[in-house]
């Protein structure tokens, strides 16, 4: 749960800056917050995390384009780009390697049959594709204020709900280790 809060730190600051100022200042805040997040995660874990780098460079590129061209569409596209990059990585892990991306990250925490890891991996990829499409729907059908609220509350709520559903599914299929007494 703490990791989710850390992941949403730049989004939360973006939201606050938008509510008190405007989208351009909020974008600047998001870029700085993402850099601080990246540095903090580097110090805490001793290395740069791939997702942290993807997140930072995506806000730097899309946010930078928004600031440079004074067009908010770029920062609004950023979540979709990140979601689709994640989905692509998940889907490609079905093709390349013996284990899916989720299995590589999660098998130290929970033991699941390979078939279940593949299902979870595919489901997460599909979830990220869907979030990207939903983001674009909100971008093109609602005003910026609605999009900012969706970006924080909608994506956080949907992600937490999805994690809960996936956790229940994983618990159902978890292999219990037998210990000798």
Descriptive notes:
The protein has 181 residues and is mainly α. It has one domain. It has helices spanning 2-7, 9-20, 23-45, 50-69, 73-95, 101-106, 114-141, 144-173. Mean pLDDT is 90; it is low at 177-181.
Which properties best describe this structure?
globular
Distance from first to last alpha carbon:
33 Å
Weakly predicted, low-confidence segments: 177-181
CA-based shape = globular
| E-strand count | 0
**Which percent range describes the beta-strand content?**
under 5%
The SSE order reads HHHHHHHH
Structural class: mainly alpha
Instruction: Determine Rg (CA atoms, Å).
Output: 18 Å
Q: What's the total helix number?
A: 8
- Share of helix, binned: over 70%
The pLDDT mean sits at 90
Describe the sheet with the most strands: none
Integer count of domains:
1
């Amino acid at each position: 749960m703490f990791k989710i809060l850390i992941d949403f730190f730049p989004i939360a600051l973006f939201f606050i800056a938008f509510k008190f100022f405007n989208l351009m200042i909020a974008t600047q805040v998001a870029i700085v917050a993402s850099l601080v997040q990246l540095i903090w995660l580097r110090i805490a874990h001793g290395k740069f995390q791939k997702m942290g780098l993807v997140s930072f460079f995506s806000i730097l590129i899309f946010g930078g384009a928004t600031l440079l061209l004074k067009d908010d569409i770029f920062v609004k596209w950023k979540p979709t780009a990140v979601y689709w990059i994640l989905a692509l990585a998940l889907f490609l892990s079905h093709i390349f390697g013996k284990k899916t991306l989720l299995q590589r990250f999660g098998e130290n925490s929970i033991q699941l049959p390979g078939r279940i890891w593949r299902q979870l991996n595919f489901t997460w990829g599909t979830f990220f594709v869907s979030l990207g499409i939903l983001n674009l729907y909100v971008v093109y059908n609602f005003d910026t204020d609605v999009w900012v609220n969706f970006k924080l509350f909608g994506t956080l709520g949907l992600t937490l709900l999805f994690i809960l559903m996936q956790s229940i599914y994983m618990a159902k299929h978890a292999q219990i280790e037998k210990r000798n007494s």
